[in-house]
Structures are given as C-alpha cells and as structure tokens.
Amino acid sequence: MYATLNFLYTYYGSRHHLRAARITASHITNIYILVPVQQFLAHPQYGARVAVASAPKRASRAMSTTHVSMRAAIAGAFSRPQLTNRMRCQRIVRSRALTTTSAAAKSLTLTKPDDWHLHVRDASKLSDVVPFTSATFARALIMPNLTPPVRTAEDAKEYRDMITRAAHDGFEAHMTLYLTDNTTPAQVEAAKACGFVRGYKLYPAGATTNSEYGVTDVRKVKDTIKKISELGLTLQVHGEVTHASVDVFDREAKFIEEVLIPLLDSAPELRVVMEHITTRDAAEFVASAPANIGATITPQHVLFNRNALFKGGLRPHFYCLPILKREEHREAVLAAATSGSKKFFLGTDSAPHPKGAKESACGCAGIFSAHAALPLYATAFESVNALDKLEAFASHNGADFYGVPRNIGTVTLEKKSWTVPTEYKFGDSVVVPFYAGEDIEWQMV
Ligand code: NCD
Ligand code: ZN
After folding, report:
1. What separation in angstroms does the CA of 86 have from each of 54, 67, 80, 83, 312?
2. Pair (263, 219) in one structural domain
3. Are residues 237 and 353 in the same domain?
4. Ligand located closest to 319 CA
5. Could you tell me the distance, in angstroms and rounded to a whole number, from the CA of residue 143 to the centre of ligand 2?
6. 7: in domain
7. Which ligand lies nearest to the CA atom of residue 209 in the structure?
8. Residue 5 in 3-state DSSP?
9. In whole angstroms, what is the distance from residue 309 CA to residue 411 CA?
10. Which pLDDT tens digits describe the chain residue by residue (445 residues)?
11. Domain end call among 105, 129, 148
12. Are residues 30 and 178 in the same domain?
C-alpha cells in the first residue's frame, strides 16, 4: 500500500520514530508521508473515508505534492474499526516503522514452534494432513476425538505410531486422551507412565465434533480429575456449556462461570488449558488466573469476527466451535495472544473435514488451517504491530507450560504473498483450506 509513496513525514517527527524503531538511513528504501487527516475530510475524494483528527500544520505543507499517493494509504490505514483517530495515527507511525524494518529484512526467524491443539483424523486421512504440520512444527498435541475416541494409553500409542510414520523426521506427536464418564484413576496412571500423554481432553458431551462420548457432568469424574491433578497431567478443556437454553455465542462465558470455576475450586492445583479461547471473558479469566491455567488461541479467532460467517451468504468454511464471536472479542483474544503473557500459546485447532461434510445442509464444525498456520498467525500479529511477540507465543510459552524443553532449530517466514489452493487431497475426498483461493501475505521459507 505504501510502496509507491515517496516521503516520510510523521506529525510526531520522523527522526524520533526512526530512532525508536532503530532504523538507519540504509534501511530506508521508501519514505512516507502522514498528513493531517482534517485536510482529507474536506477533500471530495477522501472525505467519506476519513474521520476527524488533528495534526500540526507543518505536515499539511507536504500534502499538496503527494496527495494522489496518499489516497490509498489513508483509506487503508483508517479503515480499521473501533480505534480512536489518535490511536490510528499512532499505529500508522508504529507500523510504518516495523514494516520499513522488515522491508529490509523481509523475513522472520523463530525457534521451531509447537502446535498445542491439532486434529489429524483417522488412518485413512492423516497422511494427507500431518505433513503440513510436521513441515513447520516440531511437536503437536493431537486431539483424540476419533470414532471411536482415543481413550487409553494403548489407543494413543497405536495412533501416535501412525502419525509418526506420516510425519517428517523428528516430529513428535504428543497425545491427549478423551475423558469419558468411565475413565478411571488407574487408566490415568497408565497414561502418565507412557511418557507421551500430556493429559486428558474434556469434551462436554454434545459440545462439538465427535463429543458424544464426552463427560456428561464433571462431578461424575471427580476422582479421575483428582488423579490427573496429582500426577501433574493437564486437563485440556473444550470450554462450552451445551444446554440448548444457552445462546451459542454465550457458551464459553457460561462454561467459565458454571463449570470451570467450581472445578478449580475443588482442584486448585489442576493444570488446565482452556482450548481455543474466543471471548474477552476467557482471555481475562486466563490472564488473571494462577500459573496452572493457560489457553490456546487459533488463527481464525484472531483474524475474523462472526461477520465472516455471513459475508455475502452462509460461509461454512468459517464455521468452527467455539463459533467466531463479535469484533470486541476478536480484539481481546488477539490482545491476549500478543500481550507477552506466558499463559497464551499457539494451538491451531486445525480440524479438517471432507468438503462435502462442510458444504452440507448440516455442516460440520472445524476449519483446516495446517497448510498455512504460522503465516496466518504472522498476519494477525503484524496487524497490531506485534511480530516481536510471535516467537514466545508460537515456540516458548506452550513448551514452558507443558514442562517440555523448548525446541532446537528454527523456521523462517518471508513476507511474500501466495495464493492458497482451493482444495487439498484428503483421503478419498478433498478438504477446503482456510483462505482457499485467497492470498496470504506471509509464507514459510
Ligand atoms: C473440531 C473438530 O472438527 O474435531 N471442530 C471445531 O470446530 N473446532 C472439534 C473441536 O475442537 O471443537
Ligand atoms: Zn479442536
């Protein structure tokens, strides 16, 4: 958007901001101008797109010579909703600095990341999706909601071996077992002993895809959860209540109040990951909870709000559970992911379904994102000028939470647009990936 502009002139003073961003003259390939927005308000072409703001007069002098190339810059930079004009101006200044830096570098190198929430499905399909993850990630926590579910250490071993065979060398599948009303403390001990099981997944019965074997009431599994806690395993929680009387957009917040808080009261040491958080309520709850509570965050919940589900028609490929929420929640979840707090970490919830199962009168919940996971997070982090927080989120926080060593080795992303294919092979069908047919601005090198 700014590539065609020729001068830099921020109304905060360009030198100061260049210094703050540690940009030297050799980095500057393009120089940009920010002009007072008031000037544009009065302009017939720009006026409709720009809100009121004020700026020192000195900036306006530059405008007359550059107003043509400013049009795209101003329209794009000011289109983000719910920001005050001052914040917008500050963001432009900050994001210009960062983009200018990456225009020189154009790449981002991180410690190898981990995906702490991943669905790879059963034997007939997993070899089509596992390599997307193992090409980038060193480890992933594999979700157990197969039919039948992965319930015991033996089930997990067999499943894990299949995944390992399909993956790139060195990839480690870590497992979580499906908690049912009938899981026993003795089974938890066996799970702990095998070494690759990180915990149990709590699906409230009926909450999501293949959750019908899930827990009908956490009080029924009190002793099992006590054992999970004692052995230092983690409870991965799909945090939604399921009663029909609760609005689908309120189910996460209700879960915290009705299920999670009482559960933690009865087992305060229990290690819990609230999976795929989607609301301000969950972000705030986790941020203020003790260190034994963490959360994973998906790409879709930081990139889109619920409008995406209905844009120009019903969009099944944006349907996942927990469902996308309002913009204020997306912003809160993205703020949590980029806050630098160690409690939030990467878990894509990449959840492939055959195309026909999504594009159906009763379409399945789940978004397949493994083909572009890290580029998608980079896009979201860059949108709030927080690429410097991506490494901790993707590569450190989850490992630290689970008490496993951080990975050795690195991955590199490049700021280079690519177009996502419209589908990928998936068993005897195809899967429609997230951003199918659309461009993503970052790619793996
Ligand atoms: C997941 C799936 O398809 O297995 N779907 C989803 O929408 N996220 C299940 C889950 O994690 O809830
Ligand atoms: Zn999931």
Report:
1. 9, 21, 13, 8, 32
2. yes
3. yes
4. 1
5. 7
6. no
7. 1
8. coil
9. 32
10. 222 222 222 222 233 332 333 333 333 222 233 333 333 333 333 333 322 222 333 333 333 323 323 332 333 333 333 333 333 333 333 333 333 344 444 899 999 999 999 999 999 999 999 999 999 999 999 999 999 999 999 999 999 999 999 999 999 999 999 999 999 999 999 999 999 999 999 999 988 888 999 999 999 999 999 999 999 999 999 999 999 999 999 999 999 999 999 999 999 999 999 999 999 999 999 999 999 999 999 999 999 999 999 999 999 999 999 999 999 999 999 999 999 999 999 999 999 999 999 999 999 999 999 999 999 999 999 999 999 999 999 999 999 999 999 999 999 999 999 999 999 999 999 999 999 999 999 999 9
11. 105
12. no
- What is the spatial order of strands in the sheet that 344-346 belongs to? 114-118, 139-142, 172-178, 197-202, 234-237, 271-274, 293-297, 344-346
Co-location of 263 and 307 in the same domain: yes
Are 93 and 128 contained in the same domain? no
Q: Which helix (H) or strand (E) holds 198?
A: strand 197-202
Q: How far is the CA of 321 from the centre of ligand 2 (A)?
A: 8
Return d(Cα 434, Cα 301) in angstroms, integer.
12
Pair (98, 237) in one structural domain: no
**Which residues form the pocket of ligand 1, taking CB atoms under 6 Å from any ligand atom?**
119, 145, 208-209, 238, 320-321, 349, 351, 365-366
Nearest CA residue ID for atom 3, ligand 1: 366
User: How far apart are the C-alpha atoms of 443 and 380, rounded to whole Å?
Assistant: 13
Which tokens sit at 424? 């990928």
Is 310 among the domain residues? yes
The answer to the question of residue 1 being in a domain is no
Ligand 1 center from residue 31 Cα (angstroms): 45
Q: Are residues 201 and 75 in the same domain?
A: no
181 is catalytic: no
User: Which atom of ligand 1 lies closest to the CA of 298?
Assistant: 8
114 and 101 in a single domain? The answer is: no
253: domain range?
109-444
Q: Is residue 2 part of a domain?
A: no
Say how many domains are in the chain.
Answer: 2
Set 169, 247, 349, 400: catalytic member: 349
